[in-house]
Design a protein that fits this description.
Radius of gyration: 17 Å
CATH topology of one domain: Rossmann fold
Order of helices and strands: EEHEHEHEHHHEEHHEEE
Structural class: alpha/beta
CATH architecture of one domain: 3-Layer(aba) Sandwich
Helix content: 25-40%
Largest sheet: 6 strands, mixed
Number of helices: 8
Length: 206
């Protein structure tokens, strides 16, 4: 699940967001190789089995289980869910992380639910038979994001995981906060807040 993307120097680990995949970093890998040895990672539940319990702690434990080959701390770059996993990794295993770049994630979503979002995703017309069908449905930006994430089969592009899994991952975020993990971080952090999320022709899709 850990992919060596090349480069030399300090190891850089890229963690994708919910419903993303290691492939969503494809446009960034070439220039990041100029700054270190780049690795991408496919989170559990995204094209491979999910943990028995869909908790952030379980996903971080799964990530840690794949990091034994590194002999120095990582620069970890995370988008959305990947950002959460990155700072929880730094909190639980501070010796493994040298620095963080975190984009578009908050430590506290208590009281929120993903039920409506998940119901909308279940209405997507899968499979998408062609690349153009994806672009037409989602628009050029989100369309490319999902082309890089979905699983391509003989009959077209399929979501690479169960909607119920994606829903339950994000539902956990509405039941707890991650302030303690955030406050415990002792490495340099660059925090990037996105004004808009991935959109379908200008409308938020979650």
């Amino acid at each position: 699940m850990l992919h060596d993307e090349g480069g030399t120097g300090r190891p850089i680990l890229l963690l994708h967001g919910l419903m993303g995949s290691a492939r969503t970093w494809g446009g960034h890998v070439p220039w990041l190789r100029e700054h270190g040895h780049v690795h991408t990672f496919d989170a559990a539940g995204h094209g491979r089995p999910a943990p028995p319990e869909l908790t952030t702690d379980a996903f971080v434990a799964d990530l840690v289980a794949h990091l034994d080959g590194f002999d120095e701390p990582l620069v970890v770059i995370g988008h959305s869910m990947g950002a959460l996993h990155a700072w929880c990794l730094a909190s639980a295993h501070p010796d493994r992380v040298a620095a963080l770049v975190l984009e578009d994630m908050a430590p506290d979503f208590r009281g929120r639910t993903a039920a409506n979002w998940a119901a909308m995703i279940e209405q997507w017309p899968q499979p998408f038979p062609t690349e153009q069908a994806m672009i037409d449905f989602f628009g050029p930006v989100a369309g490319q994001y999902f082309l890089d994430s979905f699983e391509r089969r003989a009959d077209g592009w399929h979501l690479h995981g169960e909607v119920s899994t994606f829903r339950d991952i994000s539902e956990e975020w509405g039941t707890r906060d991650f302030w303690n993990e955030w406050r415990s971080i002792r490495v340099p952090v660059l925090l990037v807040e996105g004004e808009y999320t991935i959109t379908r022709k200008g409308r938020c899709v979650g």
